[in-house]
Structure formats: C-alpha cells, structure tokens
Amino acid sequence: MTDLVDIHTHLVPHGWPDLGAGWPWLRIDSERDAMIMVGQTEFRPVGPQAWDPATRLADMDDDGVSLQVVSPTPVFFGYDRPAAEAVKAARVLNDVTLETLAGHDRFLPFCQVPLQDPDAACEEVDRCLAAGHAGVEIGNHVGEKDLDDAGIVTFLQHCAAVGAPVFVHPWDMPGGARLDRWMARWLTGMPAETHLSVLALILGGVFDRVPDTLRLCFAHGAGSFPFWLGRADNAWHRRGDLVRGRSERPPSEYTHRFFADSVVFDPAALRLLVDTLGEDQVLVGSDYPYPLGERPVGRVVHDAGFLTGEQREKLLSGNALRFLGRA
C-alpha cells in the first residue's frame, strides 16, 4: 500500500502562553476543550487533536497517514505586530512546537517567522532548521505587501538557498457585512487571497528572479487560480499594457514552479487542479484538525477515478517527498 503524506495540518500548542497586548491566546476550558481567543473574542474551539501527539497519531493510523507536516495556525502569525514582538512570538511557538512533537518521527514540524522583518525572518528560519524544523509556513501577505514585495522576495530567495520548503497559507481575509456570514471569508475570501498571491509571484516577476530550487506549496488547491488561469492568460495577451507586470511569460508557463495541496474535496475539482498544474505538482493535504478539512485524509485522491495508479502514488506521497526534499 502506498504511503500517505499529509503536508497540510495545523497545531495549537497547549502550552501557548498569554503574551498580552491583544495577542491570540488559548483559554483552557477542560482537559479536552480549549478556545483560541483574540483579545476577549472567541475565535475557534480546539480539542486534543490540536495539541496531543497520541490523538493525532491515532487519527493518522485510522487514515493511513505515514507522515504529517505540522504547521502553525495562521492566527498566531502576528504580522500586524511590531517586529520585535513577532520575533518573540515566533520563537515561543516554534520552540513549544518542537517540545510538543519531540520523540515522534512521523511529525515534520514547520516553523513560523516574523515575515514583516525579512532579516529576522531569515534568522528565525535558520535557527529553526538547525533545531529540527523541516520547513516554514508563511501567510500569503503582510498587510498590503504581497509575495512580490522586495523584502518577502529576499526571504524566499533565502529559503531557496538553504533548502527550506515553504508552505503558503491564506490568512487575514477582508471582513464586512457581506463576508461575516456563512463563513464567507473562508469560503470565498481564502480562495481569492491565494489566487491573488499566485498572480503576484507570476506578474510581479518573482519566479523570473528566484531560482527554481525554491520549493513552494499553496494551500487549498491554489485557491481559485486553477479555474481562472485561462482568464489570466487572456488578459496577459490582450491587455499586456496593464497585466503583464514584470513577468516574462504568460501565467500558464509558470505552473510548474509551485505545488498545491489536494484540499478541494471533489474529484472534478481535483482533475482541474491536476490538469492545470500537472501530476507532479499536486500533493495531499487535509487541513487537519479543523472542521473544514478532509477526513479521511486523501479521500478525494482515492475517489478520483481519472487517476492512474502511478499518478495516484505521486499525489499520495511522491510529490510530497519531493516538496519536502526527501526524494
């Protein structure tokens, strides 16, 4: 049976401290129940799946997962905070994550960095790689700065140089009356955020400047980008005066430069994703342990009748191992 590698899961350390001054914190309600708080506002309930290795391992065994990449929950990024505070928070979370997962070789921890300070972000990813992290998770933007910002590009170039895989997760979606119902920020805002950031890498000329040794993966099937790639190409050719930006080629010629996870839930959507990015660029993710994730892990890949056995094996493990630098 093919090994299954899940590259998209999250952790909330049970030992996360209250850093004060509006930082997210964890309200412990019982041995099995906690609430992520932002100030005095309830953000998300979590249980032992978020912090207990034994619970996670049992769920992995149920789903046939051999390796699990464990990344921070994006609400803790702190990109809107002063850089010195974000450095402190990143170090605390990254160290507590290693302590939580210590002794379990089926977990591959990814760190977070203070992305608003590129130099500090490079220093933290170096520290974390030396300490035992396998890569880094970043948000898709820092305020109004997208992934083509000069400072973020410097960080991505550093990750390429040191061989750190980068997992990009959407976060900090716009709100408002039209988006604060039905989880619309998650259902529409997240796909749009990811789509915009993929375009920023392409039209901002980042892929033309950063070496192809950069291993980059986008969450949630690269958002709405695969569905609208034809529109982006059409605009690049027809309105190049406004659309081309710094890119040397149309968007469709850059799809080999990044991975995307399989958190799309429907075989038809997975087929579009594989057709768009290629069978070598899609890998399994679940968004465990959150309720909008996929269980059992890899179900959409197993249910996709259009995949050959070789393609299915690539999506279940082979592509993930390449992204992680293990193949």
TrEMBL record:
<comment type="pathway">
    <text>Secondary metabolite metabolism; quinolate metabolism.</text>
</comment>
<dbReference type="InterPro" id="IPR006680">
    <property type="entry name" value="Amidohydro-rel"/>
</dbReference>
<dbReference type="InterPro" id="IPR032466">
    <property type="entry name" value="Metal_Hydrolase"/>
</dbReference>
<protein>
    <recommendedName>
        <fullName>2-amino-3-carboxymuconate-6-semialdehyde decarboxylase</fullName>
        <ecNumber>4.1.1.45</ecNumber>
    </recommendedName>
</protein>
<comment type="subunit">
    <text>Monomer.</text>
</comment>
<comment type="similarity">
    <text>Belongs to the metallo-dependent hydrolases superfamily. ACMSD family.</text>
</comment>
<keyword id="KW-0479">Metal-binding</keyword>
<keyword id="KW-0862">Zinc</keyword>
<dbReference type="GO" id="GO:0001760">
    <property type="term" value="F:aminocarboxymuconate-semialdehyde decarboxylase activity"/>
</dbReference>
<feature type="domain" description="Amidohydrolase-related">
    <location>
        <begin position="5"/>
        <end position="326"/>
    </location>
</feature>
<dbReference type="GO" id="GO:0016787">
    <property type="term" value="F:hydrolase activity"/>
</dbReference>
<dbReference type="GO" id="GO:0005829">
    <property type="term" value="C:cytosol"/>
</dbReference>
<keyword id="KW-0210">Decarboxylase</keyword>
<dbReference type="InterPro" id="IPR032465">
    <property type="entry name" value="ACMSD"/>
</dbReference>
<dbReference type="Pfam" id="PF04909">
    <property type="entry name" value="Amidohydro_2"/>
</dbReference>
<dbReference type="GO" id="GO:0019748">
    <property type="term" value="P:secondary metabolic process"/>
</dbReference>
<dbReference type="GO" id="GO:0046872">
    <property type="term" value="F:metal ion binding"/>
</dbReference>
<keyword id="KW-0456">Lyase</keyword>
